[in-house]
Amino acid sequence: DKGGWSSFMAKEISEQPDAIGNTLRGRLVDGHVDIPELTELGEPRLREVDRIIIIACGTASYAGMIGAYAIEQWARVPVQVELSHEFRYRDPVLTDRTMVISVSQSGETMDTLMAVKYAIERGVTTVSVCNTQSATIPRESDAAVYTHAGPEVAVASTKAFVAQITALYLIGLHLGRVRGTLAADAEAEAVRQFETLPEKMAEAVATHEQIAQLAHWMADTRSVLFLGRHVGYPAALEGALKLKEIAYIHAEGFAAGELKHGPIALIDHGQPVFVLVPSPRTSPLMHAKVVSNIQEIRARGARVIAIVEKGDTAVLPYTDDVVRLPLSDALFDPILQVVPLQWFALELSTAKGLDVDQPRNLAKSVTVE
Ligand code: BG6
C-alpha cells in the first residue's frame, strides 16, 4: 500500500520523521542513551574495545561513514569504515578488543554476512545495525540494534538510511557513557538534538515541491556533482548514489576540500553542483570553507544548488538555487540534508519516465557475493 503516494520510495521518504522517532523510542531514558542490547554484552567488554570497524555496502556504508564521526567524537575509539566485500580479503588486524559493527537494512546482504562470519571466526565482538527483525546477520551477531524504521519496499534506501545513522549515533552515545568519555553537556546536547530531530525532519520532507520544480528543468541533465565536508561528505556520496540508482544519471560526490586536487577540472559552464552547506552558527569555520568552495566552482561556470540553514545569507550571491533547512549541529545536519537529495533523485527518475521503485539491474537485497 503506497498510502496515496505515487511510489513506495515517495511514501518512505515522507515516513522519515516517524522512522527516526521509532529508532529513538525507548532508548532515551532520563537524559541518557541506553541500549539494552549493548548492556547485555557486559560493560567490561564495551570498555575494553580499542577499535571499531564498521562494515556495510551501498547506502548502509554511507550511514556507516557518517556514524564513524559521531562514535569517535563521543566514545573516543578509532573507527574505520570498510565495504564488506573488501574487508575480509586483506587480512585485517583483528583482536578480542576489536568491535565490528555491521550495517544492513535487510540483514541478508551476502557480502556483509560473509564479512560478519569472518569477524566472528576471529573472536571479534559483532554488533548488527539492522532494520529486519530476525534476519540472518542480527541472528549471527553478538548484539542486534534494530532500527525499527518499518518495512522498506523501494529498492533505493531512504528511511532505513536515516534510521541507521540514528542507531549508530545512539551506539556512540551509549559507548561514550559507559567508557566515561562523554561529557555531560555533550550528552545533553545530543539528546536535545534527537528530541527535535523528527520535527526538523518533517520540514526537510516539506522541500518536496521546491525540489520537484528544480528537477523539472533538469530532466535532460547528463551529470550532477555533489559536494560536502566532514559528515556532509558521505551525505554527498549518498546523493550521488541515489541519482545513479534510480535516475541512471552519472553522478559523483566529492569532499569539498578535495575539489582543487582534481575534480574542479570537471566544472564547465552549466554543470549542476549540489553543495551541502554546514550551519554558519554552529560550524562557522567549515561554513566559511564551503562558501569559498562555492565561489571557486561558481567562477568556473557551475550551476550551484546550495542546501543551507534557514537564514544563511552568506551563500546567496553565489548560488542559483537555495534549499533551506532547519540545520543546527554539524553531526546532525546530514540527516536533514540528504532528504532533498532523495527527492531530487526521485523526481528526476519520474521526469525520465522510469520505475522509481524497481530500477533496472538492482535488487533490494543482494544474496550473492
Ligand atoms: C544494494 C541495494 O544492493 O544493497 C542498496 O541496492 C543497499 O540500496 C545495499 O544500500 C545494502 O543493502 P543492505 O540491505 O545490506 O542495507
Automatic annotation (TrEMBL):
**Active site positions, chain numbering:** 364 (for fru-6p isomerization activity)
One GO term (biological process): fructose 6-phosphate metabolic process
User: Where is coiled-coil annotated?
Assistant: none
* The EC number(s) this enzyme carries: 2.6.1.16
EC primary class: transferase
Q: Which chain regions cross the lipid bilayer?
A: none
Q: Which reaction does it catalyse?
A: D-fructose 6-phosphate + L-glutamine = D-glucosamine 6-phosphate + L-glutamate
Q: Does the keyword Hydrolase apply?
A: no
Keywords of the record, alphabetical order, are: Aminotransferase, Cytoplasm, Glutamine amidotransferase, Repeat, Transferase
Annotated compartments: Cytoplasm
Function noted in UniProt: Catalyzes the first step in hexosamine metabolism, converting fructose-6P into glucosamine-6P using glutamine as a nitrogen source.
Q: This protein is called what?
A: Glutamine--fructose-6-phosphate aminotransferase [isomerizing]
Q: Which residues of the complete protein appear here?
A: 248 to 616 of 616
